[in-house]
Amino acid sequence: MSTSRKYLIAGNWKMNLNSAEGAELASQVVSMFGQQTDVSVCVCPTFTTLEAVSKVVNESNVQLGAQNMHYEASGAYTGEISAEMLRHLYCNFVILGHSERRQYFGETDETVNKKTLAALEANLKPIVCIGETLEEREAGKVSEVIKTQTEGALSGVTAAQAENLVIAYEPVWAIGTGKTATPEMAEEVHAEIRCLLAGLFDEDTAEKVRILYGGSMKPGNAAELLAQKNIDGGLIGGASLKANDFGGIVEAAVELSK
Ligand SMILES: O=C(CO)COP(=O)(O)O
Questions:
Q1: Distance (Å) from CA 76 to ligand 1 centroid
Q2: Span 207-223, average pLDDT
Q3: Is pLDDT of 226 > 80?
Q4: Could you report the per-residue pLDDT of 38-59, keeping only the tens digit for each?
Q5: pLDDT tens-digit profile of 76-110?
Q6: Which of 72, 95, 99, 171 to pair with 134, CA 20 to 30 A apart?
């Protein structure tokens, strides 16, 4: 990673942990990393667990993120949550366009774009997820998919806003499968994403955007992935549910920051 960017290790808890379980895990994370400042650490619980976790991470350096939001500010949108509601619970981040939302809940580049603009407007840092399926990789379409998803999600975002943006490259075939992209495979795509950002904004801005890797990242493979020039952190699923595993990944980032 470049020295101008601070690693971000974010735990995507997905649909796991009720508020009591989430508060317990968050307090373990706070006791390990609540005081350190070398690496940004963030946990992203379910909506119903956000408030309990917010109280636990409050006044520590562990930050809070949500897993989704709606793009409208308020109104007749049954079952939805707005950016302002997340800010009210002291969320700093929001994951947008996760492949599970694209696959199961009809999320498109267009809705991801609307959500990204609304999040930035509300001072939430969007973690915009992109990544190809195995079928797309085997058909040689990785660059095409990455370009379409990146440009689609970021349409209308200004260079000033982009400084608060995080991109997560999550190859769909590596999520929850135990199959990780090799550091070289991941770095190749991360470098491409940075190039796309330079085209959309400018080189300086592109250098400031953190690009996370996600997909079966664990303590055993984190260091080699995080050592790549354009890999600025991780979006962690399964391993973020165990304090020791998540801690091992954060430790790897702390070591590399020295
Ligand atoms: O989807 C992910 C994070 O958003 C990655 O999940 P796993 O770490 O479980 O593969």
A1: 32
A2: 97
A3: yes
A4: 999 999 999 999 999 999 999 9
A5: 999 999 999 999 999 999 999 999 999 999 999 99
A6: 95
Dump the DSSP string for 107-175: --HHHHHHHHHHHHHTT-EEEEEE---HHHHHTT-HHHHHHHHHHHHHTT--HHHHTT-EEEE--GGGT
Distance, first Cα to last Cα, the chain: 12
Tell me which residue has its CA closest to atom 7 in ligand 1.
Answer: 237
Integer angstrom CA distances of residue 239 from 16, 177, 217 = 12, 12, 7
Half-sphere exposure of 246 (CA within 13 A, CB side): 29
Mutate to test the pocket of ligand 1, among 166, 172, 177, 216 (most ligand atoms within 8 A of CB): 216
Name all residues whose Cβ lies below 6 A of ligand 1.
12, 98, 170, 175-176, 214-217, 235-239
d(CA 169, CA 190): 7
Given 100, 107, 132, 170, the catalytic residue: 170
Q: How many CB atoms lie within 10 A of CB 24?
A: 14
Q: Which residues are annotated as a binding site for substrate?
A: 12-14, 176, 216, 237-238
pLDDT value at residue 1: 65
Q: How far is the CA of 254 from the centre of ligand 1 (A)?
A: 21
Ligand 1 midpoint to CA 114 (Å): 24
Predicted ipTM > 0.95: yes
- 19-33 and 47-57 are packed helices; what angle lies between their axes, rounded to 10 degrees? 30
Distance 129 CA to ligand 1 centre (A): 11
Domains of the chain in sequence order = 8-257 (3.20.20.70)
